[in-house]
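Q: Two folds, back to back.
A: First:
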Amino acid sequence: MEEWEVSASLEPTEAKGNSSPIVDRSCENLECYMVLIKAEKTAIGSICFLAGPFTLLENAVVLGLIAATASLRQRPSYLFIGSLALADVFASCFFTTSFLDFHLFRRSDGPTAYLFKLGGVTMAFTSSVGSLLLTALDRYLCIYRASSYKVLLTRRRALLSLLILWSTTIFISFLPLMGWRCHKDLTQPCSRLFPYINQGYLACWTSFILVLLALILGSYALILWKAHRHESSMTSLQGAAGTGHARMRMDIRLARTFGLILLILVGCWLPALSFMIADVSVILTHTQQRAFAFCSTLCLLNSAVNPLLYALRCRELRVALLQFLQRFCEIGRCKMPSEDLSPEPPSTEDNNLTCISEEEMHRTRTTRLHSISEKEQRTLWVAYPICT
């Protein structure tokens, strides 16, 4: 492994007399990892000070709404969204404080304290990606096992899956604290991105995250394929002048929505993961270390965007939010414009789920009533129940 750069304070005679690999004295205080210059500190500090509190606030609101609404707490879909919000709350707290404390305030902790803080950040981000996977699998079951969806995914099984997810992520995240770490002198096989982190552990964690992301992409790809097949069959049955062409095709709407989700997910995670993969195979320069510091803030931005993509697009959550604001304003003796807060079936694009409205289902069923049997109708439409 290439030797660490020798600091200016190291006397030449002292370096020459040391027969062992030269270790930068500054690395003893983790100075070799604090590579940001003043302008970069200002930029990254601004991102963290703005994105951190905003992420905490919106995810706390989502988590509070789900916890305070009995009808939402009973449904597996919202349990997974609540888990995602909880993970992003942890991410906003742990990442912002640890990142600023290390890179801006240049506080160097001992191995135990540093690995404990890093374990909290790792747990938050790993649980966030894991919750995204559970949400994607929930939507997959909603489409491909619609007739038995409520039997397969009960509230008890959803809670069990969340327990397994969080237990696994906590165990994986604190493995370095439990002993899987590099040597104290920060020589090979120590990571150039994270102090005290073994390159073997970094490779395993990165591979684990990549597998989760691949499963998420695969789930949404299968959902879009199913929606496209369904729309194609509707087009052949109804004709070019049918209802399916009076509005935008459902598969196109889903493609736009899921495309945005996957673009943000990959765009936020792939740059940081690429640097982690490179850190395992090559020796990163200070410039690459600084670039990784910027890329890691994209993971925080992903946690800020998650509530907008997965939670607040659901009409039921928006209704619960409006009802809460209405009660709050009534207590504060302020007036709110009257709005219909009665629940109604969520639309496909609003709640970002692959389910259609009852009105459209009834209309299409009526159109096909004289062409296919009732059994065939159930087989076709069972893939698109209102399951959220």
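A: Second:
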Amino acid sequence: MLIITVFLSCVAIVSCGHSPNADYIEELVRNNAFGARISDNILEDATLDMASLVRKYNYPFEEHSVTTEDGYILGLHRIPHGRDSNNAVGDKPVVLLMHGLPTSSSDHVIMGPGNGLAYILAEEGYDVWMGNARGNFFSRKHRTLNPQDQRSGFWHFSWDEIGNLDLPAMIDYALQHTGKSALHYIGFSQGTTSFFVMASLRPEYNQKIISMHAMAPVAYMEHSRNLLFNFLAPYAYDLEALARLIGIGEVLPNSEIFTLLGQIFCTDQAITQPICSSIFFFMGGWNENQHNATMVPVILGHTPAGAAVRQFAHYGQSITNKDFRRYDHGLLENIITYGSVIPPRYDLSQITAPVFLHYSDGDPLADPADVDRLHRGLGRSMGKFRVPQATFSHIDFMWGIDAKSLVFDRVIQLMKVMETIN
């Protein structure tokens, strides 16, 4: 019976659409490589591409392409209305969601209806747009540069370019497509960093923001408690230079290896599942009571999605210099690029859009002390909103069991308040 169920699920996957890893995984299933340790539902959600995953749950889904000033072609995804509530096409407030590092727009739907932020917002009456930063799985195209060539200029970017070039392009596209003059913005982790970059370097975009909600906000990282980042931070510039020398521009690309590992080692039936969970805790902070271990294979089916080495290196520089500055290229290139030996600070006072900072005590990457420093520097901070659970951690803002009640509901309430003001 199990074999028949798995087979039928694979047929359903073929009819709906494939992720890049689906053929490989399905072949292993047909050969019984997993034995009896597999759930057909988890397999399906892990191997469906994003469009088919959203449509599987009877939500509308659109795929758009946006080209930046410097030629990057970005994937922009949309859920224009809800399924159970607010399910008619009409005039709705627009919200743009921006993912963290090294993930993608799939962050907002992986956990399924009722849990994924994109679905919740659609049910609340929002026109939901989900951005993808240059270099991730949905944004691996360029007018002239080849992402397969690791030595090409394609990978010479950090979150500075994502904020300065990608976000404005996606905001302009969504507003033009919907006929709106402003939208809400919700960023997670790097999605907050890139917003602070945009709103400080291109302050005209503050007028296009109804409200900005920074979940696990990352700007200053002086008090970072992430062991891996802190260990690598002093070597950030050297590691990026070495990677460039040996021809490595990308890290953690989307790969069937992660999907396969998730299906073999991370299912509920696998005795190795606690190891999978421990890896998540190591990267994003330890919090077992918000961790849905059953969903790890689905997460690994869509994450990681790829990023440039320089994105990580830039965060390493932030930890080392204890400041929020543009990327440090080295003395000579800094003079050419910025006209100064030291990269300039991002001027947070230029950020006049209303910013709401949602943070937690247990977040090792967005320490409360650093969030407070950010709050004091912003041109228009609407306040700090602490998650009322001491152990709530970094990745819990996206995938936590109680993320809806602890974070999302308050974000939506604040969004609706701001709509009455504007």
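Q: And?
A: Residues 159-178 form the longest helix (20 residues).
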